[in-house]
Amino acid sequence: MTQTSPTIRVDQPGGADAMHLVDLPVGEPGPGQIRIRHHAIGLNFIDVYQRSGLYPQNLPVQLGMEAAGVVDAVGQGVTHLQVGDRAAYASNPPGSYCERRVMPATCVCKLPDAISFETGAAMMLKGLTAQYLLKKTQPQGGLQPGDFVLFHAAAGGVGLIACQWAKAMGLQLIGTAGSAEKCALALENGAAYAINYAAEDFAARVKEITGGQGVKVVYDSVGKDTFEKSLDCLRPFGLLASFGNASGPVAPFAPGMLGAKGSLYLTRATLFTHMATRESTQAMADDLFAVVQSGQVHIHIGQRYPLNQVQQAHRDLEARKTTGCTILTL
Ligand SMILES: NC(=O)c1ccc[n+]([C@@H]2O[C@H](COP(=O)([O-])OP(=O)(O)OC[C@H]3O[C@@H](n4cnc5c(N)ncnc54)[C@H](OP(=O)(O)O)[C@@H]3O)[C@@H](O)[C@H]2O)c1
Fold this sequence. Notes:
Elements: E1 3-10, E2 19-26, E3 33-43, H1 45-52, E4 61-62, E5 66-74, E6 86-90, E7 100-104, E8 108-110, H2 117-136, E9 148-151, H3 157-168, E10 172-177, H4 180-188, E11 193-196, H5 202-209, E12 215-220, H6 227-232, E13 234-242, H7 256-260, E14 265-268, H8 271-274, H9 278-293, E15 301-306, H10 310-318, E16 325-329
Parallel strand pairs: 9-10, 9-12, 10-11, 12-13, 13-14, 15-16
Antiparallel strand pairs: 1-2, 1-4, 3-5, 3-7, 3-16, 5-6, 6-8
Bound molecules: NADP nicotinamide-adenine-dinucleotide phosphate.
């Protein structure tokens, strides 16, 4: 008998109502693949870009890039997972908004028993992102305890993890967020300073906080609205790590601007370059599992929605109504 799974599918890019719940067949895993039964699913801003068409997909597309569950079949050649293993992943290709799926095993990691399925589903894509940003996306000479960094959208999913992890590394993270309540949340989670960028000129405040010096790194996932001012927050030779477009993509600009503002460095970073191999994925995941199990990073799940209410979940994420991580429940 063919098994099926409730699955969220997009036939044409568009708003939240472009997502539909359909029942799709789930086959057997081929070589290098596993089949997994999800217990919880993570929601990410990248799902919005894929749904809207900002990141074009082959259509129809099953959305979702993060989940946790139990492995229920293993294809040929997969050695790091067995049937019955608890597991979690950040995946490319998408397709995690479902109950069961067949997928490449490379990106799937065994989930330590001490970490719940909900936490696993919430933290993989966002936590691995915080990992590569803070540990592997560094300015010339690296980061030392005491250094200032600026992290935008600090009360969001990636943001609250980064606040805590940066504190554990001894960094002074200046977080920005869009309301006083969100700023308070960032401070509670380890940000050394918080700036309400809806009310204040964040570049001026950063200069004030750092005694006119500027920060060594700006981690900018807001994109269009913050890009130029982010450059003004950097000290000479500083690094702008652009990693998202929550307000829209950064407009084209002349590289001379980086020279004029102090021989700055710019990278447009993405998690999936760092997850190119099973080894690199596992090394990053081990680092994430360790910092979560040590209690230094707590995964803040701010919202839960049943899978069939994914449209509302997207609307709330896009309307900046969410804080921390959001999960879809089954
Ligand atoms: N490149 C990568 O490897 C990678 C990996 C993971 C995530 N990301 C990016 O990192 C960012 C955070 O992802 P997340 O899933 O954790 O989302 P999130 O931070 O929970 O949500 C996005 C936040 O961005 C802020 N924002 C600023 N301007 C906005 C606008 N015009 N519309 C909507 N939101 C706006 C909002 O916070 P305020 O209200 O406080 O401004 C909002 O809560 C996203 O841009 C995502 O694409 C990139």
